[in-house]
Structures are given as structure tokens and as C-alpha cells.
Request: fold
Amino acid sequence: MPENTHDALKEISQDIRQEFEKKRRLLSFEEYLSLFASAPINQCRGTARYALDMIEHYGKTPLQKSKFGSDNREESIYRFHVFNEPIDGTAPKLIGHENVQTEIYQKLKTSAQQGGSNKLILLHGPNGSAKTTLVHGLMGGLERYSKEDEGALYTFNWIFPVERFTKGGIGLKGYEALPENLISFSKLNDDEIAAKIPCELKDHPLLLIPPAQRKEYLATILPKEALEETWERLPVSLREGDLCHRCQQIFESILIANGGDYRNVLRHIQVSRFFLTRRYRRGLVTVEPQMHVDAQYRQVTLDKSMSSLPPSLQSLSFFSLGGDLVDANRGVIEYSDLLKRPIDSFKYLLGVCESGSVNIGSSIAYLDIVLLGSTNEVQLDAFKEFPDFSSFKARIELVRVPYLLAVSQEREIYAPLLSQVKGEKHIAPHVDWAAALWAVLTRLKKPNSINYPPSVSSIISSLSPLDKAKLYDQEEMPENLSPEERKTLRSNIYRLRNEYSNIPMYEGRMGASVREMKNTLFDAAHNPEFPCLSPLAVFRELSNLVRRTSEYDFLRQDIKDGYHDAEDFIDTVRAEYLDVIDREVRDSMGLYETTQWEEFMKKYIHHVSHSLKKEKIKNPTTGRTEDPDRQLIQEFEMIVEAPQNEKDLAAFRQNMISQVGAWSLDHPESEVIYGKVFPDFWKKLERHFYESQKSVMTKMHSALVLSGNGADKEKEKRSDDFQLAHRTLKNLDEKFGYCSECGTEVINFLIKNRY
Ligand SMILES: [Zn+2]
Ligand SMILES: [Zn+2]
Reply:
């Protein structure tokens, strides 16, 4: 074996050992107490607090206030990083839903402050909103956190040593004969252990201190000021809870055998670190609706190791606990589709929430579990009609998980699907965007102007679904609003987002689901008529989808001022798409020169302001002073359709100059970006130039069609139009990622629909 391989192996083996030592730390009860004393707050955590600390541990980013709150409304919404990372490769990253994340965080916080999780957090929303992803994000975070130093969790085992440690048989007496240093059996090797019995509930080692003495004990290690607060924050199971039935039996029989010497009981305790895992259902349990036995007990036949136990213990009936709640103790249990099961089958959960314990057979098991559930809206509505709903309501925290309303977030959701398709077919640009925009449009509700201050009500009532979608996503303002109107609208975005948040038919409850959109994309990808998965293929599938009105509620909603018009939304998206590809095709033809327009606006302002001040302008090339360029001024004003009569024109000019001034004041560090100050004029310039380029476009297209038809090759190749067509396709590929097939498709579609 080469030297370096040998060293490398040695190093690896050392690493593994260190890791092993660090993770598999086995402690005597005394050692645990000193660990406890060194970090009492960490070790005193109930599960709600633990989950909360976990979320904090992975960090959070506050969202831009303007995005969610308005200027006069203080509200902190966070993106919690724990949801950013996929969990054991099975759950995807949670996209968006910062409101929901923050709400869950707040609920856990309240629960932790009140000493434990005494309410079930029920996530509700339409089918296919991200409820499961949220829960799995939390579980994945807990799983990772339990492996870190800050998240170390401990429970305990009972250790019974082999005979040679006790005089004659594995009796419970005779400790006087033990070696002096063996105050605990916790560190014995496997071959020195006759029986090892874990606590099935993974109970906290603190429970080994009897409830009556527990607070007293904490007083010896916590500073006086911290004691009361820590005590109040402990979950019921740690404040009042006792050992589980089996552990109690073991505890008592050792105690009796040793004449009441508690220290001899502790000698049998091995505190061990444990890790939460979803796969092995250790502290992280998902319960599907068809399974409904949540905790049970059974009498076990004693196995071989048990048969070597002291006779006094053997005679005790040993019960083995089992079931979901038992597995989930000290972690999270998720009841997926909670309300799909008969109500009687989960009524007992109310008791669990209320008392922090559950009856198993004749004994009580104290539990410390964060209870989560999910349900769709239809089931929740039905549940609300149930006569006992009010008693449930007091023990349930409802958290709403709507569909996403931001196009850029929705499209991010499709990314995994698209990368799957990629292997089979080329994916044209904007596919995800087109699908996402349509999906969001189907989910929007028309704002009602009576919910807004009079100053903004007319702007609000004129918002189209597309306007609203753009506002939600990037806070992009509708065209043709004055700067003043923009400002007013901006300060009402918060109100707009929350207009329907307190009613049952909230925004994001109805509409196309992610599942449906994924199916649509998938079908579009497999349509042989389209060489690539392109927006055109998506439009085709959507046209089929909107006809299936009997299958989808959202397709049967009343159309109101363009809202809920799923069929028309296909045209809306198509029109937007045409704008996008128009720019890309022109850019690829070398015709899209936005710097020209920027320059044009800049010159206009320069000349018109000098002309107003009746000043001359220094020509930068000749160095001579000249009159302002009247022709330039007139051309600009003609293109942007400035008013004709003198008085209005003067006001128009003055207004432009003051807007530039205002912009400079707001952005002292930056040079004026005219496209941003005058977005509408920018668009008008764009349109104007488009018009003038029309003939070049159609000529290029004809050449493209000709070459596609295999016309006279040689002659064709010499033509400028052909060269341009060829160059355009090449640029479409290099700049935007169109292959020659979807590149040709997009040019054909553009020319056919616009020129
Ligand atoms: Zn136990
Ligand atoms: Zn393609």
C-alpha cells in the first residue's frame, strides 16, 4: 500500500472515530448532569422551543418591506433558510410562502413561551399548495439540527451488567463489591452488559429526577433570576411528567432492592444522545389518513437479554409501547390530510394537546410533540359544519397555505420538471414563465374599489389581471400612470395583497394548481407537433385544459371584468410573449438599440431645457455654440405624441424637465436613466422604431421561409436577407438559447401574429 494511501486511511479512520465519539456520546447520569449544568437552557428545551431554535439556527432573511408591508405598517416577514435546502433528496426546496413560514414560526414561538406545544398547527389550503413541502422542510431541518452540537438531544437506557460485576448473579444488591471507580454502568462494553433496555418514549433524562424534586434540583444549577422563567417555559412533560410505565417499574424495583438508595438506581442509567430521523420514524413521523392507531401497548414476551434480568424485574409485566405518538415523542408528528379520517379517530388528539399526555392501557404517557396536520379547503369547510368544531377550534391553530401569486416564484417550481424534460427535448426560452403567468392569472381576484381610499379607488378598479400579476411579482406599475398615481398605488400594495386575506374565499384558494400546471407542461413536452417544448406547445395544452370545465371549479367561476377568464388569459400571455420575442428577434437582427432611445431622450431634455432658457448649446464636435436643435425636439414630440397647442406643449416640456430634476434628487449618486423616468415614452419610442423596421423584418422572414423550402440554394445564399436570417438564428441561439427549430418557430410566430 503506498505511503500516502495509508496515511489517508489513517486520517479517515481517525475522523470516523472522532465523529463516532462526538455523536455516540454515552454518559453516566452524573456526567449528563454536569453537561446539563453547563448548558441548562439548551437542555431544558421542550420540543416547540427546540424547533424554534432550529429555525433560528439556520438563519433568516427579512423580506424587503415594500414587498409585503406598506410604509406605515410595521410587519416583519422572513424567509427562513431551513426551507432552502432539499431534505434527503426527497422534498424540494420550498419556494415562496414567506408569510406562511413566518406564521408557523410565530405559532411555535407562542407555543414555546407558553410551555410546550398545546395546539395542533393545521395547514390548510387548496390541493397542491405547498403544505407537505413545508412540513418536510421543518422535519428535514430538525433531522439536521439534531446532528449538530447545538441540537444534541439525550435520552437514556437502563444497563444491567453481567454477573462478575455483582456478586453472584446479576442481582440488584452487592454494589459494595464493585471497583471504587465504577460508579456507573454506563461505560461498560457490550460483552459486560447483560441487558440494555432503552426508554421507548426517548424520554428526557431530567425525568429521572422525580417530579417533586425536579424544580429544587434546577434551583441548584440555574441562576435565581432564570429559574422561574425556565421553569415556566418547560413543557408539561418536563415540569410534571413522570417516567413511562416501563421505566417506572424498573426504577422502583431497583430502588426497592437497594433499600431506597436513589444513587444505585442512577448507576444503571446510561444517558445517550439520539438523532431525529424521518426514515426510521425516530421523532419525525408522518401519518397517512388510512392509518389511525396512534399509540398502543402490547405485552412482550421477554427476549433472551430480558431473561437475564434480576428475578424481581422479570416478574414484572413488561409492556412495550408502540405507535405513532410514541415514535414521534420529542419531535414532530404530521397528520397528512387530517380531516380525511373519521372525526372520532382523532378526537383524542384534543386531549393530547390539552394535557400533554395520552392514556396507554392503564398508564399515562407524557408526550412532548409538535403536532402538525394538513387539510384541503373542501374538507376544512365540511369540518367547520361539524357540531364539535368549536371544541376543536380551541386546540387548533389554522395556518393558511394559498397558491403562489408571484410569477417568478411559480416558475421556479417548474424547474425540476423542466430539467427532467431536458434530456428528451430542447426547451425553448420562456416556457416556465408562460405557464407560470397563466397559472397566476387564474388565481387572482378583482380588487373591490370600496375597500380602498377614494384617492386610489379609480386606479384600483382599472387594474387588469395582468396589471395585478405584474404588481405582485416585481411591483411593476401599469402603463400610463402619472408619477403621483404610481406613488399612491405603490403605497397601497400591502392593502391589495391583503384585501381578501380574512375571508374564506381568499385570493390563492382558487385557480390552476401546481399539479395541473406540471401535467400541462408534461403533455406539452410530449406533443410531437412541436419540435421543442416551447410556449406555443404550452398554449396548445392550455387551450385543451380550459375546455375541461366539468373537472375544474376554477374554470366555472363567473367572469368579472376580465378576472377568472381562463381562456382569455391564454391570449393575454400570448400577447405578452409576443412583446418579449419581438425584442429578442430584433436584438438578434441587430435592430434593437435601446441605447439609441436613451440617447434620444437625453438629447431632447438637453435641447429643450436650453431652448426654454433661451440659451445656446455648445456643439461637442465643433466646439461652437449653436441654437438648440429644433428638428430633434419636434421629432421627439411627434413620436411621443406630445400635445399640439402651445400652452399644453409648454406645460408638457416643463413637466418633463421637472421630472428629471425630481429623479436626480431621489438618486443623487446615479446618472439619470431616462428609460426609468419616462417608461411610457420609452415604450412609444420602441413602438416607433419597430414600425420603421417592419420591412426588414418581413424580408428576413421571407428569406427564412425560402431557405426552409429548399429554394435555389446558391442564389439564395448570396442574398443579404438570407445572410440576415442566418445571423438572426445564430444570435437567437447564442444570446437567448433558441435552437434552430424553436428559433425558426418563434420568428414565424412573431411575423404571422404581428407583421
Ligand atoms: Zn421510559
Ligand atoms: Zn429548440
Remarks:
- The pocket of zinc ion (ligand 2) is lined by residues 426, 428, 532, 738-739, 741-742 (CB under 6 Å).
